[in-house]
Predict the structure.
Amino acid sequence: MKKLLIYLISFFIFGCNFSSLVIAKELSTEVTTLINQYRLQQGLPKLTTKQIISNIAKVHSQNMAADEIPFGHAQAPSRVSYLKKYYKMTGFAENVAVVNDNNPQKIVSLWINSSNHRKNIEGDYNLTGVGVVRAKNSKIYVTQIFIRATINS
């Protein structure tokens, strides 16, 4: 019930439709699951999802979807600075994608088949967050942030 209320409030405040919100949440969960399955196959530990990291990733996806920043890694230092308020970080990386459909396997395959993206997936990170946004043109923007950190006390 609480999740439904949050979705409904978001709908009225942000003008988002309910199905887009559900798709974004499901897609971010599925991408994280597939990334963790891949890491386990490579003998690497699973990443732990943190909501604050997902929120920051979602803002980046929103900014790209709204054409406020170019597609890519613009303003990454500001994301690092923000995360440092919550974590003692020793590493940061991010993967971004823009796709025409909500197929998580396609997104993860794109990243795994790119050496730079795969390096981030296989990196020495322990925390992650994924943010997904559907733009007005129906393209889906995905950001996954990876960090190596401990929680600040």
